[in-house]
Specification:
With 384 residues, the chain is of the alpha/beta class. It is built from 16 helices and 8 strands. The site of nicotinamide-adenine-dinucleotide has 34 residues, from α2, α5, β6, α7 and α12. Keywords: Oxidoreductase.
Length: 384
């Protein structure tokens, strides 16, 4: 357990069935708003209600919707540059992690002083310049809660997390209508991403009493609702629980940190553009099995919290094994691909993958069991 720990989080959180309507009271100080979103979300009509509220308030606004999924840092910079032309004083992100991460970068890069590339070298350079509001449409990355923005770095075949507390959103709106019609493959992959955040943060070397509070509640909400939320379009309660769970898991990331699942996942996103939630889902069971000797006590604690009809008298080994089997079952039921063959990753790329994965020291140091290059190779081999 760490001796010192802390938590920074968004100052204003509005949640509930009609939370979007709170927008009216939030934007009163804004004179020019930029709405960040992407083409897929725009097509769903999810931007219509926030847009109508802004129009009713008579506030000038522009929509920037050409954000690509999982942008690299050049693409993110191009979006920041588009934003700068608007001279806005308020940002609203309506989207998944890709949209929110670009919006968060824009909130600290509104002048020409620094670029996204500068932040890759020194993430703490820039300060908050623009008030920001995050409305997640996936459940999800938890990016609405975190100080992180993840960008691809093509020359390193990696994704890299820029971490700067100045990027933490000022406002968050969690409205389950935003995820109601999420297509199943996206709901499944983004849901398992949130699941990974919760279990990794709870078993991280940086875990602490504050992060555990959020990580365990997130794990409980997510494990007990993810299947229903992803497979039953009418399961609004389950979807609300997922949205809250993914937010809590994002809060847990901020105070604790993810571990080897996310570390080894970044090269799969960076080089092969496998969706973030899918690459995490693929690595979840192999990494948890690898970590089990170092985290079984924690998995037993998680079992007691999460498994509603569980047998408290089971041995630690049994509880831990059950938890790992449940995680594996969730990925299977949700039909998320678990082999790199699906993405035509050739076995001769293994050395490169191991080298790139081992570079993610920011997260590997959080893993309770040390991951050597040989271990990373064996884990990747399991998903080859
Ligand atoms: N900043 C953080 O703390 C953090 C944490 C985890 C992941 N991430 C990053 O977030 C990105 C992934 O974000 P994501 O998983 O939310 O996916 P995403 O934002 O890339 O969106 C994936 C697809 O889903 C569509 N979509 C989103 N919401 C929808 C909705 N409600 N209905 C229909 N379609 C919808 C989008 O149009 C897009 O095509 C990655 O770059 C990842 O590295 C960031
Ligand atoms: Zn993630």
């Amino acid at each position: 357990m760490l001796t010192d720990y802390s938590l920074k989080m968004p100052k204003n959180i509005n949640a509930g069935e009609h939370a979007i309507e709170q927008l009216e009271g939030i934007i009163t100080q804004a004179s020019k708003i930029v709405i960040f979103t992407d083409k897929g979300i725009l097509a769903t009509g999810l931007v219509d209600l926030p847009k109508a509220i802004i129009e009713k308030a008579g506030i000038d606004y522009t929509i920037i919707s050409d954000i690509p999924a999982e942008p690299n840092y050049h693409e993110a910079q191009a979006m920041v540059d588009e934003f700068k032309k608007e001279n806005a004083d308020f940002i609203i992100a309506i989207g998944g992690g890709s949209v929110m991460d670009v919006a968060k970068l824009s909130s600290i890069l509104a002048t020409d002083e620094y670029t996204v590339k500068d932040l890759l070298d020194d993430p703490l350079l820039a300060k908050k310049q623009i008030t920001s509001l995050m409305i997640p449409t996936t459940a999800g990355t938890g990016a609405e809660a975190t100080p992180n923005s993840i960008v691809g770095v093509p020359e390193k075949d990696l994704k890299i997390g820029i971490v700067n507390p100045e990027m933490i959103a000022d406002y968050v709106i969690l409205d389950s209508r935003m995820i109601k019609n999420l297509p199943k493959p996206i709901a499944a992959a983004t849901g398992v991403d949130a699941l990974c955040h919760a279990i990794e943060c709870f078993t991280s070397a940086k875990a602490n009493p504050i992060s555990n509070t959020f990580a365990l509640e997130a794990l409980d909400l997510i494990m007990n609702n993810i299947i229903e939320a992803c497979t039953n379009p009418e399961a609004l309660d389950a979807k609300s629980h997922m949205l809250l769970g993914s937010f809590y898991a994002g809060v847990a990331i901020t105070s604790s940190g993810t571990t080897a699942v996310h570390a080894l996942s970044y090269p799969l996103g960076g080089k092969y553009h496998i969706a973030h939630g899918v690459s995490n889902a693929m690595l979840l069971t192999p990494v948890m099995k690898f970590n089990e000797p170092a985290i079984k006590d924690l998995l037993a604690v998680a079992y007691d919290r999460v498994v509603k009809d569980g047998d408290k008298d089971l041995a630690v080994d049994e509880k831990s094994a059950y938890m790992i089997s449940k995680l594996e079952e969730i990925v299977k039921i949700l039909e998320i691909p678990t082999s790199l063959k699906t993405f035509n990753v050739p076995e001769e790329d293994l050395d490169g993958l191991v080298a790139a994965g081992m570079e993610v020291t920011r997260l590997l140091v959080n893993n309770k069991r040390e991951v050597t290059p040989e271990d990373a190779r064996n884990i990747y081999l399991e998903v080859m």
